[in-house]
Amino acid sequence: MFLARSDFEKWFMRNGPLVGIIVAFTILVVFIVLLILVLRVKKHKIRFITPDGIKLENIKVKKGQVVHLPIVELEGLVFKGWFLDAAFTKPAYIQTMPSSNLLLFSKFEKPVIEVKKQPKKEVIIIKEEVKPEVTVEKEPKFTLNFRGRLKETSLKNQVRFINLTNEFMKYQDTTYRFLKKSCIFKFHGDVLMKIMLVGDLLKVFYKLDPTKYDSNLYHFKDQSKIKSHIDTPLLFNLRSDRSFKYALEFLTYVVEANGLKLRRKIKEYTFNNMVIALKQSPLLKANKSDLLKSKINVYDTDVLSNKETLELLDYKEINVKPINILNIDIDDIAICFNDGDLVNLETLRTLNLLKEDTDGIRVVGRGNLDKSLIVEAYDFTETAIKMILIAGGKAIKLKETADGGNL
User: Fold this and answer.
1) Residues 251-264, mean pLDDT to the nearest whole number
2) Is 287 left (phi over 0), alpha (psi -120 to 50) or beta?
3) Rounded distance, CA 244 to CA 266, Å?
């Protein structure tokens, strides 16, 4: 008996440390596996601070999942969106669930009733010669195009437009383009989605066969008999959160039907960098989209320094120096042009806004600017350049070639 125990003690002394290491390693592996499983299923929460009488359920989903923030309606007030702070200085542009809990604050404002002003009379002053002032009475050239109407529509429509855009543009080989009456979304040149505004009603059209779905259940309309919508015949009128939910669901059917694949790197679109800014916008290229505004006042241009302004100014060479240069106010230009238009000597002359001998213009900052324009001029005031840039446009200063000869 003594010999048997002695043999066991010798075996344990010889193998005991190895057994201990194996047991410890096994426990560590099990712990790591359990920790990974816990982290993978961990969900984060978004809580909402709203006025008394409005209760919203918390959103609780995993990191990276798509999140649709609710739109709140309160009688007599306009919902201006969700913010990350109680002072409403940091808008909450959230498309996917972050990796932490969030507390969002709802902002409301009283509706503003705008009084439409009568078209102004433009006073054009000749710079180098003292002549009597020339008064030109102008009528607006255009009704607002789709981009312009988006700037004036409700915040609810703006948020829904951006959400639909982000949902479509996260797939490979997709593009968008603003037209006069709509924004079209393509895949390999084929239009799969089209968004329009009729009054204050946002409409989304899909390239889907309406006969394959139950219109009584999903409340869509069949537009296949209308020539302009024959390629995208399935229509949702986004009057409510429910119709918007259905529209998002049907967008997934479009994706499945056309075999779209997710991009490796998904770009996040905001109202500033998609609607306010033109694709040529220097502020957008300089990653300063937070400075963009749908309407800029001459007194609110100090967000850009004079040095930054000159750095963001573009140049174009001409071979003849102008002689008869006219001063034109930026807010008068906005009356006659639409979002995305080119404003230069030729387009101004086409509208009969210049004297026959005018061969150069100088743009002066004044009043308000609510359109994104590409403006070519021989000279600008610094305020005018700032207004054009902050409104999402581009300012191009014309200069003579170095040798004064031909280009």
Assistant:
1) 95
2) left
3) 22
Instruction: Work out the number of other CB atoms within 10 angstroms of the CB of residue 392.
Output: 32
CB contact at 8 A, 127 and 325: yes
HEC profile of 270-332: CHHHHHHCCCCCHHHHCCCHHHCCCCEEHHHCCCCCHHHHHHHCEEEEECCCCCCEEEEEHHH
Q: Which amino acid is residue 287, in one-letter code?
A: N
Distances (CA, A) of 37 to 44, 59, 191, 396: 15, 22, 42, 57
What angle do helix axes 155-169 and 241-258 make, rounded to 10 degrees? Answer: 20
As a residue count, the chain comes to: 407
Q: What is the pTM of this model?
A: 0.63
Q: How many CB atoms lie within 10 A of CB 91?
A: 17
What are the pLDDT digits (tens) for 319-340? 888 889 999 999 889 888 999 9
Tell me the backbone φ, ψ of residue 375, rounded to 5 degrees.
Answer: -115, 120
DSSP single-letter state for residue 96 = B
Q: What is the DSSP string of 164-195?
A: HHHHHHTBTTEEEEE-SSEEEEEETTEEEEEE
Is the CB of residue 381 less than 8 Å from the CB of residue 375?
no
Residue 175: partners with Cβ closer than 8 Å, 6 or more residues away: 185, 186, 187
Is the pLDDT assigned to residue 369 strictly greater than 90? yes
Give the distance between the most distant pair of CA atoms in the chain. Answer: 129
C-alpha 385/C-alpha 365 separation (Å) is 8
Distance CA 32, CA 294 (A): 51
The helix or strand, by DSSP H or E, that contains position 99, with its residue range, turns out to be none
Residue 362 CA to residue 330 CA, distance in Å, equals: 10
